[in-house]
Write a structure and sequence with these properties.
- The chain has two domains: 183 residues, Up-down Bundle (Lysin), CATH 1.20.150; 129 residues, no CATH class.
- The protein is built from 16 helices and three strands.
- The longest helix is centred in the C-terminal third of the chain and has 32 residues.
- This is Coenzyme F420 biosynthesis-associated protein.
């Protein structure tokens, strides 16, 4: 684990404080309404567990992970902890490289402050957009006693903001969101090898990151400066030109292979979650069709030119494609072999779809077989 300040390439403590200062205000709610929203989200999270288990036939074996209803500062703190956990080995290696350069330690100390501010700006931007997430790589703590545990985060102000923006039934929308996020929790608790496999792929990707620390920091700054308004013209130009994302820019050939596998896994997980929440929805969410239609339009539209450019730079456009392509893969495989046939995907890393198979599910069916109908 890396320290919070000084010799790190990113001053994480400063990133948190910067993000907290720059957070956009959430929707106006009374104290009583806020308590009611939190209580309802917790109830929906509990109810969603049974709905998802019955629909997917995935058994978590009694594994329980925390459900945290957080505000935007809470989301920022949780994600910084997760970033430090995953990026620790890479940061240590880059810190050693910088320390070997004359004056490198002093340069890193100064640079970490600058980067901490700018990473904080990014976190502030993202914190108003996330409705919930299953935090797979949360570090061990009082509520997470050991490695391999995760926790489910539901960002209450963002959920309220979107349900108002879409003008949908609050009760239905909150349950609908919980069904999606609970599916992610079920994926990792019911498939014990999945977390370790994903972590191994991520670490392999980072090990291949043969990039100078200053170069990596500069790429982060491009996004952060756009968020701060200083790079709006550059971001708009990147949108028009279809420029690469941060992830695209740090790839080696070996990383591209790993990233293809990671993209396939993430497409599967996101598409499965979308398929499940829409499959469960008609029975428990009366207005699911209206919610899906409005939410899909919102996903595709973005909030404007700068927002679209930032989504591309941060790789968020790829995430939107993951929802669409992954859901189509799941639907095709379930249609061919039923849910039991689809669940063969969870047998081992070898039965996960490749990136090409996500786009062409018939290839996965030919390789693995449809299973029982």
């Amino acid at each position: 684990m890396t320290s919070l300040g000084g010799t790190d390439l990113v001053d994480w403590k400063l990133a948190v404080s910067t993000a907290t200062r720059m957070l956009r205000p959430g929707p106006e709610v009374s104290r009583e309404e806020a308590r009611s929203v939190v209580a309802e989200l917790r109830r929906h999270a509990v109810a969603s567990e049974r709905h998802v288990r019955e629909f997917t036939a995935l058994d978590s074996g009694g594994v329980d992970t925390p459900v945290l209803v957080v505000d935007r500062p809470g989301w920022v703190r949780a994600n910084v902890a997760g970033f430090r956990e995953v990026l620790g080995p890479l940061m240590s290696r880059m810190r050693e490289r910088r320390a070997a350069v004359p004056g490198g330690t002093a340069l890193t100390a100064v640079g970490s402050k600058v980067t901490g501010v700018e990473v904080g700006m990014l976190l502030a931007f993202l914190s108003s957009r996330v409705l919930g997430q299953y935090e797979t790589f949360a570090p061990a703590g009082p509520d997470l006693p050991g490695p391999g545990a995760g926790r489910l985060l539901l960002v209450a102000p963002n959920i309220v903001h979107v349900e108002r923006e879409l003008d949908v039934h609050p009760h239905d929308f909150r349950l609908w969101v919980c069904l999606h996020e609970e599916t992610h929790r079920t994926q990792f608790t019911a498939v014990p090898w999945l977390r370790d496999h994903l972590e191994s792929e991520i670490q392999s990707f980072l090990v291949e990151a043969d990039v100078d620390p200053a170069t990596l920091v500069e790429r982060l700054r491009r996004a952060a400066q756009a968020v701060g308004g200083r790079g709006a013209d550059e971001a708009a130009e990147a949108e028009r030109a279809g420029g690469p994302s941060i992830v695209d820019m740090v790839q080696t050939p070996r990383q591209r292979e790993i990233l293809d596998r990671l993209t396939a896994v993430m497409s599967l997980l996101e598409g499965h979650a979308d398929y499940v929440m829409d499959g469960v929805g008609p029975a428990v969410v009366p207005s699911v069709a209206e919610i899906r239609e409005k939410f899909t339009k919102r996903r595709q539209a973005g909030a404007g030119r700068l927002d679209r450019a930032l989504r591309r730079l941060l790789g968020l456009d790829a995430k939107l494609r993951q929802y669409r392509d992954g859901e189509r893969f799941v639907r095709t495989v379930v249609d061919a072999g039923g849910m039991a046939g689809f669940n063969r995907v969870w047998t081992s890393p070898n039965t996960l779809p490749t990136k090409e198979e996500i786009s062409r599910p018939e290839q996965w069916l030919a390789r693995v077989g449809p299973g029982p109908a």
